[in-house]
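Hi team,

Filling in the usual template for the complex we talked about on Friday. All components are listed, including any nucleic acid strands or ligand strings, so the model treats them as one assembly.

SUBMITTER: L.P.
PURPOSE: interface mapping
COMPONENTS: three
RESIDUES: 263
SEQUENCES:
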Amino acid sequence: MPNHLLLGPSGGSISDVGGAGETRPLLTMIDVTRALSVVATARKVSDEEEEEEGGASSLNSAVSSVGGKRAERHGLAGDDHDAERACFRVVSDEEDGEGSRKKLRLSKDQSAVLEESFKKHSTLNPKQKLALAEQLNLRPRQVEVWFQNRRARTKLKQTEVDCEFLKKCCESLTKENRRLQKEVQELRALKLSPQLYKQMTPPTTLTMCPSCERVSNPATTSSPANPQPSGQHQYSNHDRQTTASWVPFPLEPLFLDSIPQRS
DNA sequence: CTGCTCGACTGCCTTACATCA
DNA sequence: AATGATGTAAGGCAGTCGAGC
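RESULT (copied from the run log):
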């Protein structure tokens, strides 16, 4: 089943369209489409000159072998594909050496239209592909390739962003782990000397409710919206609280504040 | 000259559909 | 008629090449 048929009206993210058993990325997608489109539209090419000279025709002059694999596989050299053949004719007329892969640079306008289309849906159905190709005076194969490359590069960019984020998470967790280990060591040392143990103040991070004997973390039980005095616990409210809001241990690790936020 | 970007290609995988035993 | 095996078409992705800036 063609993957585009699986997509909803919005087209979905690229992680949705993998045909080969691709899974969703671990992390929420950050919109790198915008970033990439900025790069694309900011490209400094001599497109304007090209357009002034009639860019479309010059575009079609630079094409490589006959539509690549698809043409080979699906017999595009046959009579059913006049459009493709027409393009090929243009190429064979103007191209000198066989097998030479001339570089085509899409014009600014063409890129912009493709970008707009990609924003709407990252994959195209055959109709959309043909329409776009016609609109931009490109071969359907070129539109197809552009979308494939665009998906690949968006995914790559997203992977880089995710990687950076995970690195920062890892750093934070390592830091927090060291801190906790140090705390454990300190507590063990104190336990070995009962005199000091009696005199010590309660652990900095965890406190126990004397009424219910549950451990809690003052830092997490008081939210910014509902601030409690530092280290103070609303024991009298226990019977009014649901079990969901009062758990033996903090639901979120203390160090979450130090984990970088994804924008 | 070098590095980067990006259009194009290849090879492989998956899915849908048609055909046949 | 229903069913499983097989072949084909079509689409996607990863990896790569190479032209152009």
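MY TAKE: Residues 1-3, 5, 19-21, 39-40, 43, 62-65, 68-69, 101, 103-106, 141-142, 145-146, 148-149, 153 of chain A lie near DNA strand B (CB under 10 Å from a C1'). Chain A is about 50% helix and 0% strand.

Thanks, L.
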